[in-house]
Amino acid sequence: MKFASEFRDPKAAKGLLAEIARVAGQIGATREKPVHIMEICGGHTHSIFRYGLDKLIHEGVEFIHGPGCPVCVLPRARVDECIQIAEKPGVIFTTFGDAMRVPGTKKSLLQAKADGADIRMVYSPLDALELARRNPTREVVFFGLGFETTTPSTALAIQQAAREGLTNFSVFCNHITVPEPIKALLDDPHMCLDGFIGPGHVSMVIGIHPYDFIARDYGKPLVVAGFEPTDLLQSVLMVLTQVAEGRAEIENQYARVVPEHGNKVSLAAIADVYERRPSFEWRGLGEIDASGLRIRPHYAAFDAEEKFGVGYAGMRTEVEEVEGCACGAVMTGRMKPVQCPQFGKGCTPEMPLGALMVSSEGACAAYWQYGGARAAAE
Ligand code: SF4
């Protein structure tokens, strides 16, 4: 398959692994700890386990799995607020499938659907828009969730709804941004990171320059990477080479997809529809300044928080995370999934306790799917 098989070439992968071992060995001669590289994106975490890169890589490199899965970082309070909206009379609540099983305080959206709420899975916000056109007497709410990758499509749906004058369509906006949590991690004195693998899809929208502060202010390298095995191995090698040479730069391994300055059309739609929230709550990371987006006042008619008086527009309640759930520690690299006391016991993909076991991009689900189930049994 063109543009896929060449990035899975075993010979190329072996060559990269040998070069990684050489550079990691060179760095290892001057320090005791392995080089800690955080892959920010959940898609990269999934690829690392899928292709066994965590086992193939030289022992002088350790992957730290970052907070780049939007389902995983959604706090329980926001799931509760979704259910609050979905259970209102006359509402059709629409969501991507991966959010259906995220546990709230009392139940998930899937359980709320079983209890009678009209909750429907969609593949795009445009599906929700179509539902609103076909059901003019119902309120159709789209659960806008995700990083900069999905933010533009929600913005386009809101712009389209405004053009058509739809009055029964709104968005429960939970769109978040990548650079701010990276800054929060770098400001955490307990974090010990040597470099980053930057997200490919997000960077396709925002380009590579929003990461400049990581190299400039914190002296850490970041390499934007693709998702195939040789993409990831080449990116690890690029980070290691910077560490070995004492450089800290933002580099783009995924240049075949990621333009340096991002996608202008998407960025214009984002700028038109959203503004920054002063802060936004992240599961495991707490409140992070300017890390969430809300709908601008001139599109307030399409803002479900305003329409239903929930979330940041209503009375928010503090919700503690589940007792015994170590999602926060896993997402900040302080614990591996198998070290969580709940892994494979109180928490499995069939009965998830924490969000990292729900989403296919969650580190715990990836561990489980690619050998973790066996490790738990052992
Ligand atoms: S095993 Fe479950 S509870 Fe533990 S960190 Fe993973 S998702 Fe959270």
From TrEMBL:
Q: What is this protein called?
A: Hydrogenase maturation factor
Which PANTHER family does this chain map to?
Answer: HYDROGENASE MATURATION FACTOR HYPD (PTHR30149:SF0), HYDROGENASE PROTEIN ASSEMBLY PROTEIN HYPD (PTHR30149)
| Gene source species | Rhodobacter flavimaris
Q: Which Pfam families match?
A: HypD
By sequence similarity, the record places it as follows: Belongs to the HypD family.
Q: Which Gene3D superfamilies does the record match to this protein?
A: 6.10.20.100, HypD, alpha/beta domain 2 (3.40.50.11740)
Q: Gene encoding it? A: hypD
The record's listing under NCBIfam families reads: hypD
Sorted alphabetically, the keyword list is:
Iron, Metal-binding
**Keyword Ion transport found:** no
